[in-house]
Amino acid sequence: MENLTHLLIIWVAVLAASYVAVRVRLTPVLFFLFFGAVITNVGLLPVEPTPFIAGTADVGIVLIMFALGFEESTSRFLKSVKRSWGIAFFGGLVPFLVAYGTAFYFWQNQPIALLTGLAMTATAVSLTMVSLKEEGLGRSNAATGIMTSAVLDDIASLALVAVLVPVATGEADLSASGIFMIALDALAFFALVTILSMWILPSGKAAGIFCHVPIIGSRGIQQIFAFEDGKKAMLVVLILAVSIGLLAHEMGFHPAVGAYMAGLIVREEYFQLGKDTNEGRRNYQRVHTIVDDMAFTWLGPIFFIVLGGKIVFDIPTYISLIPEIITLLSLLIIGQVASASLAARYTGGFTWAESGMIGFGMLGRAELAFVVMDIAYVQNNVFTTDVFYVLMAVAFWLNLAVPLAIRMWMPYFQGKKGPKWLTQKN
Rg of the chain over CA atoms, in angstroms? Predict the structure, then answer.
């Protein structure tokens, strides 16, 4: 019954957080994190969640990312990749260098500096995308730019995890072969997803060069959606999301990246079961509503509650570390916003208003940051307790800054405040 008790406490916290968010007109994500930290620190939930809760949180983040990809157009995503390479490169490089330099200055330790830089590199894209969705910007150019650059950023960060963690822990040397294998895995993953999107899922003429291949040429996901008049479409969608998420995991990436790609390749026309186009639209909307309800109302928020619960309030220790926390936090905010915004403007051609939103949207640190912290602190004892607390605090405040910064920038993004040149294109 322990798992059910914890689940009940989390859902009550989700409801309370949602209520407060509506009252103060801020995104619920901020309060999910806050309530998660509070209920953990007062002892209502353990610091380390049970396997059931941890697994449910994993399902939640997969659904969140699938739902976000489900809303995005594949063509928009691919087009945005061309605009977002600079955001991913400079928006990842600068925070890495800032965190590395700051950590080395304070602790004079190369492995600590390397892993600190790595922990503070990857963007918590799920947090940002949910925050943007709450503001009605889930399908804006800025959101697409953040999503594509964050995916590229995560791929690069995961490659660095594979390369730098063994180096920092003394288990291996930096090698060209290791970098090559990671790049090869990334290319293979996206190639498989592309093949699935272009030739396996579609049917008939849409199957292109595979149209004459038995089964693949005459059957596609549209026929599977038609099973029992579309009543099992939601189940098929979930199978697809989890399958590609697991494929991403097997190839060394976060399952959330695979789930987003799964949502990205599912098209509305797959839900067309007959000649009535309105029926296909209704089927799509029905599945879309269910996915959103699961991802943003009752299952996805568990991820953020558990994430917030990773912050342990050890007040005396945090007070003694205030100089390190404020220094690293301030430099990361300046470096991340400036690098991502300038890259968005000058390499991606976004307006200054969109560039500012992208810069603020890249502030969050979550999944990969905590993975690196666990590897460095729990598994390998590279981080001292002080380093761990500093990074936990910085990640927490960066996460809190995301919805607040997005809300603050909204009037400028919409052109209601600020000079006209903010919203003007090149």
Answer: 22
Note the pLDDT tens digit of each residue in 261-270: 888 888 877 8
Query: By the 8 A CB rule, do 62 and 241 touch?
Result: yes
β strands within 23-119, DSSP E: none
Q: How far is the C-alpha of 243 from the C-alpha of 83, rounded, in Å? A: 29
pTM assigned to the model: 0.72
- Measured CA to CA, the distance from residue 121 to residue 105 in angstroms comes to 18
CB 123 within 8 A of CB 90: no
DSSP characters for 162-215?
Answer: HHHHHHHTTS----HHHHHHHHHHHHHHHHHHHHIIIIISS-GGGGGGGTTSTT
Q: How far apart are CA 30 and CA 131, in angstroms?
A: 9
Angle at 11 between CA 5 and CA 13, to 5 degrees: 105
94 contacts: CB under 8 Å, gap ≥ 6: 335, 336, 338, 339
- For the domain covering 2-423, report its CATH number: 1.20.1530.20
- Report yes or no: 100 and 116 within 8 Å, Cβ to Cβ: yes
C-alpha span between 80 and 333 (Å, rounded): 24
Q: What is the pLDDT of residues 399-425, one digit of tens each?
A: 888 888 888 888 888 888 878 777 777
- 154-177 pLDDT per residue, tens: 667 766 766 666 666 666 555 667
Q: What is the DSSP string of 113-141?
A: HHHHHHHTTS--HHHHHHHHHHTT-TTSH
